[in-house]
Specification:
This protein has a domain of about 300 residues. Helix content is about 40%, strand content about 20%. β12, α13 and β13 form a beta-alpha-beta unit. α1 packs across α2 and α7 packs parallel to α8. This is F-box domain-containing protein. Keywords: Coiled coil.
């Protein structure tokens, strides 16, 4: 038989085989206590006379028997009340013990946390001098590949600055840790928080890297662009320029989005000295006319193209001020005619690296489609020229670009003093 729960305790009764007694079980907090209840309880002298007295009353007992039974009932009534008061006191004591137990457990957690803090302060890594930690931090960030750009939230710089207060203090005092930033522009979405969060990160990194030159990589996810996206990209680029353009030295654009690449807001990045156009190989057919977005950056001295087709004429810049130019690998490459034209456009060139095409010239296509009329009048591919500052000219290509062909190209296009020619075959 199940008895109702009292004060969080559960009572059950179980009859014994002789039916003259039963077992009462009490469970609380997974602790069970069993008590055998018999007809004659030890320590209770009235229990021996209770059952005979009840039998006499049931047979029609005298008034004296009834008075005697009434006294026995009052005795057990008082005894039950006393036990209930004791039970209530015990419950109150239990609650106080539970509160104390919770407090003790909280104190244990707090003590262990302080113990861990003390142990960490005594650990070998915390005993390293600040100068050595600075060298380690700079080595970690400096060892990252030039082509790898990590988002601000998951960058090694952020991880280092979040280890402890001491590391954060040291890292924030090292401008070289914070002068490279990846800005994921994302796709245009209404009320998107992503660009605003990146702008906040950008402002922090620009401030921490002061007064060093700043490098920034702008990246977009591939999606189906729409002309209506133009104002969105213009606003983002203008905000980036307002935050960092005064110190930007390297501008890297990793996108095949023609709406972004044709934005007029690129002219805001005037101090940029190095331009890298990367990841734009899938843009063939999406831009049919030369994009002059980057032609208004007068400070450019270095350009890295990884575009097709007709690279680098798809995104012309002020070639006359370039000292370094690199044209990455593509299916078509740069033919000899385009190379001659480009070298004549870059009189200050010191270092050049080109992925050469194995087919014949495409001069008509280049001049008619991707070079302005003014540029054609200013530079005549048939005129002689001299690259007096040239230090290295590397011609890369497929295996069909033989050493003899590379030498003929270099010897016919570069006047004295002639630069060394590197050859890098691609099978």
């Amino acid at each position: 038989m199940l008895v109702p729960t009292l004060y969080g305790m559960r009572f059950t009764t179980e009859a014994v085989h002789d039916n003259s007694s039963h077992i009462v079980s009490c469970s609380s907090n997974r602790n069970t206590v069993q008590h055998l209840v018999t007809a004659f309880a030890e320590g209770d002298p009235l229990s021996a006379s209770l059952y005979p007295l009840i039998q006499d009353v049931n047979r029609g007992g005298t008034p004296s028997k009834l008075a005697q039974l009434s006294k026995v009932a009052q005795h057990y009534r008082d005894h039950a009340s006393s036990l209930k008061r004791e039970d209530a006191q015990l419950q109150e004591d239990i609650m106080e013990m539970m509160v104390r137990l919770a407090q003790v457990r909280a104190d244990i957690v707090e003590a262990e946390n302080r113990l861990d803090l003390a142990c960490n302060s005594m650990s070998p890594i915390r005993l390293l001098p600040s100068e050595l930690l600075e060298v380690i931090f700079l080595d970690v960030v400096g060892g990252i590949d030039r082509e790898e750009w990590a988002p601000a939230k998951s960058s090694p710089q952020t991880a280092i600055s979040h280890v402890c207060g001491g590391w954060r203090r040291i890292s924030l005092q090292l401008p070289h840790l914070w002068n490279r930033f990846l800005f994921d522009i994302g796709i245009p979405l209404h009320n998107s928080r992503h660009p605003r969060q990146n702008l906040l990160y950008l402002e922090q990194w620009v401030e921490r890297s002061n007064p060093l030159p700043f490098s920034i990589c702008l990246r977009t996810n591939t999606h189906f662009p729409h002309p209506s996206d133009g104002p969105y990209y213009d606003t983002i680029l203008q905000s980036i320029a307002d935050s960092a353009s005064s110190r930007i030295e390297l501008l890297r654009v990793h996108s095949d989005n023609p709406i972004l690449l044709e934005s007029t807001a690129w002219s805001r990045f005037v101090p940029a000295k190095c331009l890298e156009l990367v990841g734009t190989r899938n843009i063939a057919g999406r831009i049919t006319l030369p994009c002059h977005s980057f032609n208004q950056l007068p400070s450019l001295t270095s350009v890295h193209y990884d575009v097709s087709p007709a690279s680098p004429f798809l995104f012309p810049v002020s070639f006359s001020s370039l000292t370094e130019i690199e044209v990455g690998e593509s299916n078509e490459g740069v033919d000899a005619y385009a190379l001659r034209y480009l070298l004549r456009c870059c009189p200050k060139l010191k270092r050049g690296r080109f992925f050469m095409a194995t087919s014949g010239g495409r001069g008509g296509f280049i001049l008619n489609g991707f070079v302005s009329a003014n540029a054609v009048r200013d530079v005549n591919p048939n005129d002689s020229y001299s690259l007096e500052q040239l230090e290295c000219l590397a011609l890369n290509g497929h295996s069909l670009l033989t050493p003899n062909r590379a030498s003929r190209i270099a010897n016919s296009e570069v006047a004295e003093p002639r630069a060394p020619v590197e050859r890098n075959d691609r099978e």
